[in-house]
Amino acid sequence: MKTIAAAGILNALVALGFVLVSMPAHAAPAPCEDMLKDMRATKATAKLADADAKKVNDLETKAVERCNADDDARSDKFLAEAMKIMGK
Hints:
Layout: H1 2-22, H2 32-45, H3 50-68, H4 72-85
């Protein structure tokens, strides 16, 4: 009887281990292409001062560079900063 109970517990622990290993450690960043599309739509309707428009354009350039390099996390940070400047 003890062997059967121990085997059941062992199977449960192994199954739990598989579940924990398959879970991501943190949420994945949004695809940079999606954020870039959203940022460009916001920029198209934004009323920005020249200085802010320059900052947004510079951040967009950096974001595209990082996105093309498959560095979505950094690209998303640049885009989030641009959105903040535009009040979103």
